[in-house]
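Hi everyone, sorry if this is the wrong subforum. Our group has a chain we'd like a structural model of before ordering constructs, and none of us has done structure prediction before. Sequence below.
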Amino acid sequence: MSLVIVSRKSPLALWQAEHVRDRLHALHPGRPLEIHGMTTAGDRSLDTPLARIGGKGLFVKELEEQLLAGRAAMAVHSLKDVTVDLPPGLCLGAILARADVRDALVSPAYAGIAVLPPGARVGTASLRRRCLLGQSRPDLRVEEVRGNVGTRLKRLDAGEFDALLLAAAGLERLGLQERIRAYLPVAEFLPAIGQGALGIECRIADAETLRLIAPLHDPATAACVRAERAFNRRLGGSCQIPVAGHAHWVGENISLQVRIFGRQGTVLVGERAGPAAAPEALGEAVAEKVLARGARALLNEWL
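Answer:
Right subforum, don't worry. Here is the predicted structure as tokens:
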């Protein structure tokens, strides 16, 4: 009997699912695997800002329902779309090696944010990116753009925007790296929690699936992502609130940098390094640090 991988139907989501399927085929030749594509609530509601209708969790909820009902063995996600608290009975059984974590500028005419003219229209669906642009270029017109990568690029090419901000990893996975005009430095454009990493979600009790996907797990990436997600969990952050966080290895330790943005332009910055063996403790410690400095008041501005 085939094991079912459930995925959104967007080209990027299907690429991710196919990538996992192909790697599993190489590891387990002859094991039947099939992909079941779905259109989720997040895909259907394209006319409303994502933060207003429930955030990125809308992209994964229906996939998780398939797992819990036993109609699928695993779901493949971009981890920046996965809520920090999973439904009871589900787990991230494997976290794959991380791709590029950076944001990218896509534009037919401009080679960087600094050279965009005043009033240029920049499209993004991310509150985090909107806030970061507001810090560096408050003179730009930042506008909401939803839909899959191809839809956004068509709107850019039709002249609706002067530039788009997108995740570099998604463009590269779709073979669209030639559209990237500039990679935005992590130090200036701190990524979203989990950006660039793929996770495989499955049932905790499904020992066979956990065994099959175990070789795909990358402990180095997983430690960084666990620190980022623990920070966001302790903070009480969600996809409706602009929070940035990126963990990376420094020698034998992990360093975690975070930013929390207020609605009026206030920014809180936090950073700390800790043992890679305790990434959750590191994430929680950084959260406690920014909470003590007033992060809760900034978060409440968005509620």
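For your construct planning: The chain has three domains: 1-96+197-217, 103-184, 218-303. Residues 11-27 form the longest helix (17 residues).
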